[in-house]
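hey so u asked for the seq, here:
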Amino acid sequence: MIHDSLPLRQIWGSMMGKPHPAELRQRVVDHVADGNTQRATAARFKVSVRLLNDMVKLKAATGGLGPKPQGNGGGHGKLAALKGWLARRIGEKRDLTAAALAAEIVATHGVAVYRGTVWQALRDLGLTHKKRPARGRSEAPRGRSRPPHLDHQTSALHGQPPDADRIYRRVEPEDQHGRDHRLGAEG
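ran it, structure tokens below
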């Protein structure tokens, strides 16, 4: 079943596969070393022949069966050498946009980058984007309603003139006998 609202990592789990346990790796290599064929060993331990072949080659080449490091390791992108400069530049001028930083990087270092690359480098430095500057709280905290102002009329609270109730009141027409002709109105 396809779930459009779930991220792929949640559907498929982690994108990187987990290495086989070291004990299993050692057992399959030992079984092949005892004179068994790779196909028979793969069937017995319920692993692929490819894994078995890779483990035998790894043991012969390195003498060990440890898994190789996964992922790209990070820290080697276009802006890896400029992270110190980025941190100093943001320290000097806190309100720079990612596009402005990208333009400065091109002008000063000759490295063409997208603003998304700049954002990734800033996130790696632990910097986040705050939409509004910090200010003192002069209003009630969010989630709590403010107490009503009893000294003001309701319309004045909404930026309307104090006599807005009278000005903007909908006047229902009455019939010729002075009765309200709306359905259900007592007259």
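Residues 100 and 115 are 8 Å apart (CA to CA). Residues 17-62 form one domain.
lmk if thats what u needed
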